[in-house]
């Protein structure tokens, strides 16, 4: 072998070693919560899957109430894109308004008074508190290889910070839902879910924020219908598979969106950097598939807020890229808002990146 040939082989080897790292930068868009005619949604699963597929999503969890949906039972569109997958799931739907998404489980997860459980167990479960019900979900989902999201904590009596904080190993809550009756921004019984999130983080709870559709209504496109396309997560993964996406979510390598798209999110020992993808953000927002938050006031355009202990805004920028330098904060997360004036008020669209803990970096 001549020397040139050996060099070519060496270079090819180096490129092949580096390609997984390069692929790590891929963002995958997905929805982890929706319903079909199998549950209380109004469209056939095939058409629901087709809708998300055709809208450019990369992954979808069909999360039916107390029904395990595995991808091999669901018909995919003709000529499906190679970069589209279904992930097994279920919405474990329990008493006391305790609902959770079980993502990437290997089998059915029972609820507390499930007829599938022995009667003695069902009787014992009757006295469980909201925290205990939630703990049961977390443990059952983990034993089936999945991860648990607490869904819509502000729906009806919902779950308060104390209820959530008492649960061990609960790592996700639905921070923002596209469902029109879940009081994302709070009401007389609840502070906003974002405030609950900050309270949990301030108490030392390691918990990430999910945005998801909870779609039910695919024919009537208006409020208060629960249409798809309003809220999703963007997950960074080296490959698109159910296990890889779930692993990235478990590690907090994702952000949640109700319209705003980021080009870059990077964290190292000293700083947290985000960069907005303005073209993609405007493209998503122009689809008008979501229900923006309407406020009386707000600065138009993009705003980047870095947020820390007790929900305090640590730094604000109106640039398209911002860097926050750590200075012994307990945790730091970032929210990007896009606001524009409309006849009804200032419409706001968001994305929320995940908290990081500078002393753990
Ligand atoms: Zn629910
Ligand atoms: Zn649901």
Bound molecules: zinc ion
Structural class: alpha+beta
Low-confidence stretches: 8-23
The tally of helices reads 8
Order of helices and strands: HEHEEEEHHEHEHEEHEEEHEEEEEE
What's the pLDDT, averaged over the residues?
A: 93
The CATH topology annotation of the largest domain reads as TIM Barrel
Main β-sheet, in a few words? 10 strands, mixed
Q: How far apart lie the N and C ends? A: 46 Å
Radius of gyration: 21 Å
Total E-strand runs: 18
Task: Give the domain tally.
Answer: 2
Q: Given this structure, which CATH class of the largest domain is correct?
A: Alpha Beta
Helix content class: 10-25%
What characteristic shape results from the CA principal axes? globular
Give an account of the 3D structure.
24% of the residues lie in helices and 27% in strands. The chain is α+β, with helices and mostly antiparallel strands. It has two domains: 26-257, TIM Barrel, CATH 3.20.20; 258-361, Immunoglobulin-like, CATH 2.60.40. Strands 1, 2, 3, 9, 10, 13, 14, 15, 17 and 18 form a ten-stranded mixed β-sheet that branches. Strands 4-5-6 form a three-stranded antiparallel β-sheet, with helices on one face. A three-stranded antiparallel β-sheet has the order 11-12-16. Helix 2 (45-54) links the parallel strand 1 (27-31) and strand 2. The chain binds zinc ion (2 copies). One zinc ion (ZN) binds at residues 33, 35, 91, 214.
């Amino acid at each position: 072998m001549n020397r040139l040939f050996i060099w070519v082989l060496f270079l090819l080897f180096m490129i092949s070693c580096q390609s997984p790292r390069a692929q790590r930068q891929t963002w995958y868009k997905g929805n982890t919560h929706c319903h079909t005619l199998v549950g209380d949604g109004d469209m056939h699963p095939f058409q629901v899957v087709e809708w998300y597929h055709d809208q450019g999503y990369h992954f979808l969890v069909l999360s039916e109430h107390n029904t395990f949906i595995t991808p091999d039972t669901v018909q995919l569109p003709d000529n499906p894109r190679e970069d589209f997958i279904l992930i097994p799931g279920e919405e474990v739907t329990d008493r006391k308004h305790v609902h959770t998404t079980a993502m990437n489980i290997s089998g059915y997860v029972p609820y507390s008074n499930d007829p599938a459980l022995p009667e003695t167990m069902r009787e014992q479960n009757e006295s469980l508190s909201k925290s205990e019900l939630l703990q049961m979900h977390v443990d059952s989902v983990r034993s089936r290889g999945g991860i648990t999201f607490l869904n819509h904590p502000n729906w009806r009596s919902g779950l308060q910070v104390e209820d959530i904080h008492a649960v061990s190993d609960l790592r996700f809550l639905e921070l923002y839902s596209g469902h029109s009756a879940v009081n994302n921004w709070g009401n007389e019984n609840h502070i906003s879910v974002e405030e609950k999130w900050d309270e949990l983080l301030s108490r030392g709870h390691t918990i990430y924020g999910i945005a998801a559709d909870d779609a039910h209504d695919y024919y009537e496109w208006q409020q208060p219908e629960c249409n798809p396309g309003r809220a999703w997560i963007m997950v960074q993964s080296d490959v698109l598979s159910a296990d890889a996406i779930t692993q990235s979510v478990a590690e907090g390598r994702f952000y949640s969106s109700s319209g705003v798209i980021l080009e870059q999110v990077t964290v190292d020992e000293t700083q947290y950097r985000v960069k907005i993808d303005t073209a993609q953000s405007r493209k998503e927002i122009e689809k008008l598939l979501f229900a923006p938050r309407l406020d009386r006031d707000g600065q138009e355009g993009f705003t980047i807020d870095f947020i820390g202990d007790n929900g305090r805004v640590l730094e604000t920028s109106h640039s398209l890229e911002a860097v926050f330098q750590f200075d012994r904060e307990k945790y730091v997360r970032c929210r990007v808002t896009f606001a524009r004036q409309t006849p009804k008020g200032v419409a706001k669209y968001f994305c929320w990146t995940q908290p990081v803990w500078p002393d753990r970096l």
